[in-house]
Amino acid sequence: MRTCLILDDYQQAALTLADWGRLSERVAVSALSDHIADREALIARIDQAEILVIMRERTPFPAALLERLPRLELLVTSGMRNLAIDIAAANARGVTVCGTESSPTPPTELTWALILGLARQLPLEHQNLRTGGPWQSTVGTDLAGATLGVLGLGKIGSRVAEIGRAFGMRVIAWSPNLDDGRAAAAGVERAGSKEALLEASDVVTIHLVLGDRTRGLLGEAELRRMRRDAILVNTSRAPIVDQAALVRALTEQWIAGAGLDVFQTEPLPPDSPFRSLPNVLALPHLGYVSRNNYRTFFTQAVEDIEAWLAGSPIRTLA
User: Fold this and answer.
1) Beta strands in 22-156 (DSSP E)
2) 237 catalytic, yes or no?
3) What are the pLDDT digits (tens) for 140-189?
4) Bridge-based pairing state of the strands 189-190 and 170-174
5) Choosing from 266, 295, 303, 315, which is the catalytic residue?
6) Prediction pTM value
């Protein structure tokens, strides 16, 4: 009987959203709902498992961790891309790495929750209503007629752009590889440069893949190009924006606010300024967290394990 552990099952949902019973005769499956940040403590909890199922980048798997897990044979991650896994090191140790599909719909919807929440000051107004504070203390920002700047026009960015158009916004987009044809096909204007997009937009939303060309893409110089009444939304990856520069931009009000679902360190440290800045609407990385998406993740994790046990792995990452 092989042992499978599901890590970082924060909502204790993994075992209820897939038929793990299909594995019961060959694999003993259990889930850990707490996040274990300390490496030695993590190793002590997982070093007897032959199979690990992980949720995105919640727990990184660098080479230094993989070499401490000699029993590990299969690593399954949600999604088909996980920069927190050293896949080359895993393959070198004979560990098969598999992924799952992931829907672009949940992060698209959450992006708009952040935009709308900031534009209409929903957190403050909700808190005032609950605590007996002022009735109508803010004046909301209109989205109709405003300019939405989309950094990255892929599966998620193009959907965000479509909704922006439905709100009556002018939508412009930029990415290092975006051309006029792709922009036109998505019904948006291609900004001539990153800087031009930042200067023109009332709302800037990030939907780029993290890589060498996008890490630190928005630093102090770029944030200072944004309008003082503009908002920045990041549901992609935190390192695309220089975090220290973003804190300064929010503290000194170079920009009006930020909607953030991703952070350099997760879970977010208790003393992070993003927990207390009044012009930040922050969420605990909920972009991909939806019932249907989780059902896909864990159902396909079961399929990955079954295929691996049969000697024909599917959805392998390399």
Assistant:
1) 27-31, 51-54, 74-77, 96-98, 147-151
2) yes
3) 999 999 999 999 999 999 999 999 999 999 999 999 999 999 999 999 99
4) parallel
5) 266
6) 0.94
